[in-house]
Specification:
The complex is a heterodimer of chains A (164) and B (734). Chain A is α+β, with helices and mostly antiparallel strands and 164 residues long. Chain A has seven helices and five strands. Chain A is globular, with a radius of gyration of 15 Å. Chain B has three domains: 205 residues, 2-Layer Sandwich (Aldehyde Oxidoreductase, domain 4); 145 residues, Aldehyde oxidase/xanthine dehydrogenase, molybdopterin binding domain (Aldehyde Oxidoreductase, domain 4), CATH 3.30.365.10; 334 residues, Aldehyde Oxidoreductase, domain 4, CATH 3.30.365. Classes of the chains: A alpha+beta (164), B alpha+beta (734).
């Protein structure tokens, strides 16, 4: 049995400890927001937060999250309670096919948590691990910048909502 | 040789019409008269005036979108069209993805399919008519219920307004159901549009930003098992022997057996299936394709062009005489490699067979194919196949080939379990179907004042349509035996090889410029690799050849590249205007030191696009800093989505222009994943500015036309930066 925290809840699983976290979350816990894109840590569609850090979970064995806190896109915000980035994704009409966007948003959220007002180059560097075949990059960047511009307001909101 | 051109559209149309039964046009069945029930939710007390709309008692307006949403924004676009005339804000509608039904046919194809940048163009009037007819009926019902005249009523976002009273559409659905719907309610003039042409957001953005949008791979049904297929390295090879001893006892593994395309491994989880698949040892048969390496393609295409014995396409004027009398002639050869589509969501399908019924969940570009395919493979009646469309995690043409659905059905049939079949990324990159490689040779003549007089263009490579046809044929003609299907598929291959040009093979190679003397020749050279449509299809490579050649000719004639284009597109006024506007944009640009501008323009899918690429070359690396895209697509139903499609087309095209290329070694694709088949990432993505020309005409395509001009625009800029004419894709400076 491996225990960890998933979106704020303590969970246990009897899955093989070598199974990548992505598949445990998708197939055992039935949270389908995180996606399979490459299986080799090359595209970022599977990005989740492990103790607040963006990690590619298609190559992260379940054993590595023992006792840790895992956040998926479902834990970041919901349609009725959007994270500021999710609201910005709507406002800037970012998604096209949408398949990579959970991973994009998780990577962006980890970036802004660590660096609330990143430069353009810092955004590029932080997001370079996430592929989008529809070519949403200009909008992803604009949406991140729009949230970053509200930098202080964003910090305050994170704290009042206890999301940080 | 005969000169016949068969377009994708006509090809699909004639194939369906011959099959009988499908209706082309705007005629719609209604609930009561249609032989096949509409695949729509049954909501208590709701009203279903047609196959697209439902009004629920709580005034929820449901819109069933018949075109596949693969990112191009078609759910938003079609909801905008219907909402404009129904007078309901598209963002307030509940969007559903439609099942299979004859009312959902794409009028442009004569079957239920999404592709060819057709959706908004083909449904522009139809969807509006559906909305207008429905609104007219609601008003008639309201007039009866309120005992007032229709003329005294107005509507506002789902409400009927009479004086001070404001009542939801739903209040009148009981009466509406007793009335007959008209099919010719008056459409709004453009001046009254409230939603069309406005900067509305996307209807699917929140679902896609919160991980709640359901893709095929997210479907999970009780008892579902997961399958992967061990596939041959060389396309279409069959297994000679299978040793699964090492895989059989692995955790969760339930079944291992041969299917048409390889060896299926079924387990309780995807990961278990994938692990076990790696332990299955298969000896594959040897095929002639094993003799093919990367260099073989270009060598064989070169030989075919040298030989000159192809199928003649358009042949106008006297090409030989025109070349002789031209002041300047120039000839060059251009290469485009084999490509994979690599949509972010790998191919997958869920199939559950229960007795003589089946449920299918997948995101697919050609839903019409689903009942026929599943019926044939599972041996159950087609009308017992229920198709559940999902969002498509990228399409780009790839999701028009349903071979993964055949596999999932085979596996569900054999195991008796609900099956989710998932392709790995390696399967996706290596198995195709692919965008064919192409070798194009163009010779052109220009007279003393810079007028193009002669254009002699040839293309060698594999055809695109026959393989796609082969995949859809068994679905569209369930009554044909397997042998008959194979025979017809072979016939179509022969037809394009010997008799007619597959329009997809040469489209875009010769149409845009005014040259009175034109000759187009096509050489089909088929190495038996599977092929299909890839975003912008033939234009994805012909634009590179044509627009590079035009740049070279302008230089040879001593003319400015934009002026040369303007002078030689007098017969294509819309393209000419796009070139003019883009040329004015370029004239105003002052790129920083070391940055160079390249220009290209192309007409595809009824839309005209010009692009200007700002490029630098540093340390042998091509860097694209900015792209300005000018287009005329007629009425932009949602200008922001038009911009997004241009941005996406440019980036998809740039990935191909800078990196794209699959290599063959003994008939097998060498690349396997994103480490060796790289994609453009954010840090390499240019700033993209889109200028939409408002020409006030009906809408034309936007999903694909942004792509073709980008590779030549970059190549033309690289020439200015380095003096090197790069005539092979991907672009690499020496």
């Amino acid at each position: 049995m491996i225990s960890f925290e998933l979106n704020g809840q303590s969970v246990q699983t009897a899955s093989d400890p070598s199974t990548p976290l992505l598949w445990v979350v998708r197939d055992s816990f039935k949270l389908k927001g995180s996606k399979f894109g490459c299986g080799s840590g090359l595209c970022g569609a599977c990005t989740m937060h492990i103790d607040g850090v963006a990690v590619k979970t298609c190559i992260t064995p379940l054993a590595a999250v023992t006792g840790k806190s895992v956040t998926t896109i479902e834990g970041l915000g919901t349609p009725n309670d959007l994270h500021p980035l999710q609201a910005a994704w709507h406002e800037h009409a970012v998604p096209q096919c949408g398949y990579c966007q959970s991973g994009q948003i998780m990577a962006a959220a980890a970036l802004l948590d660590a660096n609330p007002q990143p430069s353009g180059d810092e955004i590029d560097a932080a997001m370079a691990g996430n592929i989008c075949r529809c070519g949403c990059y200009p909008r992803i960047k604009r949406a991140i910048e729009s949230v970053s511009e509200q930098g202080l307001a964003y910090d305050a909101m994170m704290q009042t909502e206890g999301r940080a | 040789m005969n000169t016949v051109n068969v377009s994708r559209r006509r090809f699909l149309q004639s194939s369906t019409v011959a099959g009988g039964g499908l209706v082309i046009g705007f005629s719609l069945t209604s609930c009561s008269s249609t032989p096949a029930p509409l695949p729509m939710a049954r909501a208590e007390g709701s009203w279903t005036p047609n196959a697209f709309l439902q009004v629920l008692p709580d005034n929820t307006i449901r819109f069933y979108t018949a075109r596949s949403e693969m990112g191009q924004g078609v759910t938003t676009g079609l909801a905008t069209l219907v909402g404009e005339e129904l007078d309901v804000n598209p963002l307030d509608m509940e969007i559903r993805l439609a099942g299979v039904h004859e009312d959902y046919v794409n009028p442009d194809f004569g079957m239920q399919g999404t592709g060819g940048s057709t959706s908004i163009r083909a449904h522009y009037l139809q969807m509006r008519q559906v909305g207008a007819n429905t609104r007219a009926l609601i008003l008639e019902a309201a007039a009866q219920d309120l005992d007032v005249s229709v003329a005294s009523l107005a509507t506002e976002n789902g409400f009927v307004i009479h004086g001070e009273s404001r009542r939801p559409y739903a209040d009148f659905i009981a009466t509406a159901q007793t009335l007959t719907i008209a099919d010719d309610a008056t459409l709004k003039p453009a001046a009254q549009f409230k939603y069309i042409g406005q900067e509305t957001r996307r209807v699917d953005a929140i679902a896609k930003a919160t991980g709640t949008a359901q893709f095929g791979i997210d479907v999970d049904v009780p008892g579902m098992h997961y399958a992967v297929v061990v596939r041959p390295p060389v396309a279409r090879a069959k297994a000679l022997s299978v040793n699964a001893a090492g895989a059989k006892g692995m955790p969760g593994v339930t079944d291992i057996f041969e299917v048409g395309t390889g060896v299926a491994v079924v387990a309780e989880s995807f990961w278990q299936a994938k692990q076990a698949a790696a332990k299955v040892d298969v000896q594959w048969e040897s095929l002639p394709l094993e003799a093919v390496n990367t260099g073989t393609l270009r060598r064989d295409y070169t030989a075919a062009l040298d030989n000159g014995d192809g199928v003649e396409g358009p042949n106008e004027g006297d090409i030989e005489a025109a070349m002789q009398s031209a002041t300047t002639t120039h000839e060059a050869e251009y290469w485009a490699p084999l490509l994979a589509h690599a949509p972010m969501e790998p191919m997958n399908a869920v199939v559950r067979i229960d007795g003589d019924e089946a449920d299918v969940w997948t995101g697919i570009q050609f839903p019409s194919a689903v009942p026929g395919l599943v019926s044939r493979v599972a041996d159950i009646p087609a009308e017992n196949v229920r198709f559940h469309q999902t969002y498509l995690g990228g399409g780009f043409g790839r999701r028009g080939t349903p071979s993964h659905l055949v596999e999932a059905t085979e596996i569900a049939k054999v195991t008796g379990k609900p099956i989710q079949l998932v392709w790995t990324r390696e399967d996706d990159i290596q198995q195709g179907p692919f965008r064919p490689a192409s070798l194009m040779r163009i010779k052109a003549g220009v007279d003393g004042d810079g007028t193009l007089t002669a254009w002699d263009a040839a293309r060698a490579g594999a055809d695109i349509s026959p393989d796609t046809f082969r995949g859809l044929l068994p679905a569209l003609y369930p009554w044909m035996g397997d042998g008959f299907v194979e025979g017809v598929a072979n016939l179509s291959e022969w037809y394009f090889e010997k008799f007619a040009t597959d329009e997809a093979s040469t489209e875009g190679l010769f149409e845009d410029y005014d040259h009175p003397n034109t000759r187009v020749t096509h050489m089909t050279v088929d190495h038996e690799l599977p092929m299909t449509f890839w975003r912008s299809v033939g234009h994805s490579y012909t634009a590179f050849a044509k627009e590079s050649m035009i740049d070279e000719l302008a230089e040879a004639a001593g003319m400015d590249a934009v002026a040369f284009r303007l002078q030689n597109t007098q017969n294509s006024p819309r393209l000419n205007n796009v070139i003019r506007v883009a040329g004015e944009q370029m004239a105003k640009m002052s790129p920083p030191e070391g940055h160079y501008l390249g220009f290209a323009a192309h007409h595809s899918f009824h839309t005209d696009v010009a692009e200007i690429a700002e490029v630098s070359v540093e340390g042998g690396k091509i860097r694209v800093h900015k792209v300005t895209c000018v287009l005329d697509c007629g009425q932009a139903v949602n200008p922001d989505i038009v911009r997004a499609q241009m941005e996406g087309g440019v980036i998809y095209g740039l990935t191909a222009a800078l990196y794209g290329g699959l290599n063959l070694e003994k008939g097998a694709i060498k690349e396997s994943n994103f480490h060796d088949y790289p994609m453009l990432r954010m840090d390499e993505s240019p700033v993209i500015e889109v200028v939409i020309i408002d020409s006030g005409t009906a809408p034309t395509g936007v999903g694909e036309p942004g792509l073709p001009p980008i590779a030549p625009a970059v190549a033309n800029a690289v020439y200015k930066a380095t003096g090197q004419r790069l005539r092979s894709l991907p672009l690499q400076v020496a």
